[in-house]
Amino acid sequence: MSIRVTLDRVLLEKRMSLTELSERVGVTLANLSILKTGKAKAVRFSTLEALCRELDCQPGDILVFEDGQSNEASEAA
Question: Check: CATH 3.40.630.30 for 3-71?
Answer without folding.
Answer: no
